[in-house]
Amino acid sequence: MAIEDITKEELIALLKDAIRQASEENPLSDEEVKWVRLAIQNEAKKSEYRKAIIEKSLGGLAWAALCGIGYLMLEFLKTHWK
pLDDT tens, 33-81? Predict the structure, then answer.
């Protein structure tokens, strides 16, 4: 059977059969599957940790900027309102 002779329905059926066979076969052992799941969880935790550090750093920078602006305003008022 040449590729040109395959109808659309036959091609769909062949693809469905190949996908079904590939999903039925699990090339990883149970131990390997557990390791992969743990690795995925570890990466998710690392990502959350990095996100928290970035958020807290930006919050600290914002507070430092506000305090700096407040200090400059206070010094300006002290200097000009004597």
Answer: 899 999 999 999 999 999 999 999 999 999 999 999 999 999 999 999 8
CB 56 within 8 A of CB 63: no
Q: What total number of domains does the chain contain?
A: 1
Has residue 76 been placed in a domain?
Answer: yes
Domain that holds residue 47: 27-82
Indicate the pTM of the whole model.
0.53
Output DSSP code: residue 7.
-
Q: Is residue 7 included in any domain, yes or no?
A: no
- Residue located via tokens 């992969």: 36
